[in-house]
């Protein structure tokens, strides 16, 4: 975010500052670190383009990796964070790390310092650090979090990579269809109109579109661009995303895979927290935000059942939060006393299952998509040339 500040410098003069920050507090701290006394803060209004994020995200995984390396090298925690702040190029992130280091110098714990910046450090990360402070093993906890995040990113990248080729096919097919409908069809409609040729019904519909584009091209293109912008803005809103997600959950095959993906991520998070020393009920509560609202309600019921003394496997199964494999492995983990490790194994198993399903789906979907795009483009071309084909047939 960009903020405009009015501040008094060391010489007593009022200046206007333009600073980037995660929030207003971060911007004020940047100004104060330079010796200014802030009088007023105002967030600068941007264009709000749909492809631009509202703010830059703090690189939490990179921060954890670098902090882990420095701690293993023997640097004290405060000195390690100061080193990372000096190397940080973005002013808002540098100010954030400097503020964390300042809070640590006041005697606060790292978890309490991170907790003051929820936009940069989520509750899951703070809980991981807090659990490590009880046992004094911050470096292993950071390593577990980095491994956890890398595994989640690997699954996410597989899904994104699987969507790249279908996305390209849809984009190219859409552009070709748009070119035919906006440029080629209007010219054919003009030719047929001048010669007063009797057209088949579907050709009349297509060429009526061409006449409309020919007469109101600017209006049609403006409406098309406005529709794209409205769709882009709509996809940024939480309500629209929630409706799309709910619609996908209702599809039989896709809904089951979405549930499996969320359960795998849920089990991996619980396993990471348990191995870090977080109590089970606290881990369940912190991981609830990873689930769909429907599954979140089931998790609340399962948590109540666990708090009443029932086994985890039985509580999860009764509320539909397991699979047949997960149920068996949870039972084994309860008997062996290694629930954290077993939940991570459950996540690994389901991640592989999701990857196999994505590979199968893309291999099936891509040729079907190519056939559908070919049919659309072919239908447009055939409807344009059908009167010519009929004319050639009558001449014979």
SSE layout and pairing:
Blueprint: E1 2-8, E2 14-20, H1 24-33, E3 37-43, H2 60-72, H3 77-87, H4 91-105, H5 110-115, H6 123-135, H7 138-195, H8 201-215, H9 217-236, H10 238-250, H11 252-275, H12 280-287, H13 293-307, H14 312-318, H15 324-336, H16 339-395
Antiparallel strand pairs: 1-2, 1-3
Helix pairs in contact: 1-4, 2-3, 2-7, 3-4, 6-7, 7-8, 7-11, 7-16, 8-9, 8-16, 11-12, 11-16, 13-14, 14-15, 15-16
What does this protein look like?
With 396 residues, this protein is mostly helical. The protein has three domains: 2-43; 60-121, no CATH class; 144-396, Type II secretion system (T2SS), domain F (Receptor-associated Protein, Up-down Bundle). The protein is built from 16 helices and three strands. It has helices spanning 24-33, 60-72, 77-87, 91-105, 110-115, 123-135, 138-195, 201-215, 217-236, 238-250, 252-275, 280-287, 293-307, 312-318, 324-336, 339-395; strands spanning 2-8, 14-20, 37-43. The protein has a three-stranded antiparallel sheet, covered by helices on one side. Helix 3 (77-87) runs antiparallel to helix 4, helix 13 runs antiparallel to helix 14 (312-318) and helix 14 runs antiparallel to helix 15. It is flat. Mean pLDDT is 80; it is low at 46-54.
Main traits of this protein?
75% helix, 396 residues, 16 helices, 3 domains, Receptor-associated Protein
What is the fold named in CATH at topology level of the largest domain? Receptor-associated Protein
What is the CA-atom radius of gyration, in angstroms? 29 Å
Terminal-residue CA separation:
71 Å
Question: What is the tally of helical segments?
Answer: 16
CATH superfamily of the largest domain, called what? Type II secretion system (T2SS), domain F
> What percent of the residues sit in helical stretches (DSSP H or I)?
over 70%
Q: How many discrete domains?
A: 3
Largest sheet: 3 strands, antiparallel
Low-confidence stretches: 46-54
Number of strands: 3
Mean pLDDT: 80
Q: In terms of structural class, how would the helical and strand content be classed? A: mainly alpha
Strand order, main sheet: write it out: 2-1-3
CATH architecture of the largest domain: Up-down Bundle
Tell me the fraction of residues in β-strands, as a range.
Answer: 5-15%
């Amino acid at each position: 975010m960009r903020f405009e500040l009015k501040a008094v410098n060391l010489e007593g003069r009022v200046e206007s500052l333009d600073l980037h920050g995660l929030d207003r507090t971060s911007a004020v701290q940047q100004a104060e670190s330079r010796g200014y006394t802030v009088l007023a803060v105002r967030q600068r209004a941007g264009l709000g383009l749909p492809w631009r994020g509202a703010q830059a995200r703090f690189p939490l995984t990179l921060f954890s990796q670098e902090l882990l390396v420095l701690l293993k090298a023997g640097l004290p925690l405060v000195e390690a964070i100061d080193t990372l702040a000096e190397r940080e190029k973005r002013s808002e992130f540098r100010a954030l790390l400097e503020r964390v280091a300042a809070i640590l110098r006041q005697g606060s714990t790292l978890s309490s310092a991170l907790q003051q910046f929820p936009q940069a450090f989520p509750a899951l990360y703070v809980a991981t650090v807090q659990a490590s402070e009880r046992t004094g093993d911050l470096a292993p906890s950071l390593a577990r979090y980095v491994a956890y995040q890398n595994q989640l990113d690997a699954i996410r990248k597989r899904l994104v990579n699987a969507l790249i080729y279908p996305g390209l096919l849809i984009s190219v097919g859409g552009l070709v269809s748009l070119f035919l409908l906006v440029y080629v069809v209007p010219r054919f409609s003009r030719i047929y109109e001048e010669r007063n040729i009797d057209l088949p019904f579907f050709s009349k519909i297509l060429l009526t579109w061409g006449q409309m584009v020919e007469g109101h091209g600017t209006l049609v293109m403006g409406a098309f661009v406005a529709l794209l912008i409205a769709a882009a803005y709509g996809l940024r809103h939480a309500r629209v995303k929630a409706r799309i997600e709910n619609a996908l959950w209702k599809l039989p095959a896709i809904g089951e895979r979405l549930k499996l993906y969320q359960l795998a991520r849920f089990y991996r998070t619980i396993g990471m927290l348990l191995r870090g020393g977080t109590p089970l009920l606290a881990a369940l509560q912190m991981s609830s935000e990873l689930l769909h609202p429907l599954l979140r309600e089931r998790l609340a019921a399962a948590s109540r059942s666990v708090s009443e003394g029932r086994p985890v496997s039985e509580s999860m199964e009764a509320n539909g939060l397991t699979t047949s494999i997960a149920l068996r492995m949870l039972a084994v983990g309860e008997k062996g006393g290694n629930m954290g490790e077993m939940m991570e194994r459950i996540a690994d198993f389901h991640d592989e299952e999701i990857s196999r399903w994505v590979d199968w789906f893309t291999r099936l979907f891509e040729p079907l998509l190519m056939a559908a795009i070919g049919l659309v483009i072919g239908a447009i071309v055939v409807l344009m040339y059908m009167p010519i084909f009929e004319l050639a047939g009558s001449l014979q």
